[in-house]
Amino acid sequence: MSRPVPKILFQKDLGPKKGINYSRQHISRKIREKTFPPPDGKTTDAPTSPNFWWETTINKYLRKRAAALREVIERKGGNRGTSIPPK
Fold first, then answer.
1. ∠ Cα 82 86 87 (to 5°)
2. Tens digit of each residue's pLDDT (9 = 90 or more) over 23-39
3. Closest C-alpha among 14, 21, 28 to residue 59
4. What's the pLDDT tens digit per position in 30-74?
5. Which end of the chain is more exposed for a tag (fewer CB within 10 A), N or C?
6. Are strands 41-42 and 8-9 parallel, antiparallel or unpaired?
């Protein structure tokens, strides 16, 4: 049985594929604040080469963010009137 091929996401892919429509500057700010995962690498050693994230890294970030939002909603009195399905 073969392993699934890991997928690479560039910043331009984050919006259409994952719904993360942050600007380059906002992503940099969130990485410095440690509220967004740092890139998993660069495509080459050149300083201007684009950063990339493995899709699994972004999926973990989105799951963690959804869990935190769910927790906040539960603390405020449940899931009434929201479109977020329970876990």
1. 145
2. 999 999 999 999 999 99
3. 14
4. 999 999 999 999 999 998 999 999 999 999 999 999 999 999 988
5. N
6. unpaired
Termini Cα distance of the chain: 31
DSSP string, 2-44: PPPPPPEE-HHHHHHHH-----HHHHHHHHHTTSSPPPSEESS
Which residues, listed in sequence order, are joined to residue 42 by a DSSP beta bridge?
Answer: 51
pTM above 0.85, yes or no: no
Q: Smallest Cα–Cα separation from 87: which of 57, 58, 67?
A: 67
Task: State the pLDDT confidence band at 7, using cuts at 50, 70 and 90.
Answer: very high
Instruction: Report how many helices (DSSP H) and strands (DSSP E) the chain contains, helices first.
Output: 3, 3
